[in-house]
Amino acid sequence: METIFNSMFPTFFSIFCVIYIIGYFVIFRNWSQKFRPEASSCLISLFHGSPAVILAISALRLQPVWGFASPNTNSENAVLEFSIAYFTMDLIHYLIFTPREYLFIAHHLATLFVFITCRSVALHGAFSVMVLLVFAEITSFCQNVWTLAGLRKDDSDLAKRVYWVLSPPFYALYTVMRVVAGPLFFVKMSTSLLKHEARDVMPIWISLSWIVVVGAAIMVSWLWIWNNWMEYFRERGVSKEKKEG
Hints:
Elements: H1 9-27, H2 36-62, H3 74-97, H4 102-122, H5 126-137, H6 140-152, H7 157-193, H8 196-199, H9 204-244
């Protein structure tokens, strides 16, 4: 087993720690204590999401053979370490400040399980993880700006406008990535991971666990975006009634 601690993980983790601390004590120091932790979490997510997409796409372009169970390349391992560092830091954030956010904690633990087993146990399958990472993080910038605006929308007209203007395009992009593209790729990935070619190089328990974890994440994403769409149209209806009244 290869360990991520003999890698770039400590460096990446230190960077995300510093960014979080700067966000908490400097950038968001004038925000209320209620919002400072979540805002700092959004800040490190901003430094992870879009860079992760770029790094993952670059790693895929350098991959000599595209296959769901192909050997990991050094570039793919670096992206995995980068993401493991981010999710570890954000998990610590949740455990300290919002330990009852069981769904987010479970999501981070499941994501870390896939990343770590891919990087340090299976040593194969990073192609699948890179594609899923792109689908998941391509909405990151919009989501974090939307979240930050949502934290301040009750006491800032600008934040409120940004929140409502950004909601439809963010929800639409999220729907395309998580409800359409992601599940289609998941079906192909699941089928491939259960074939003999994958079972010859990856333990079957890893393939099955990835399928369960990713499938559960997709279902949670469907529920999350459905609830947000319903809330958006409900709020629009209320706003329309107030104007007509």
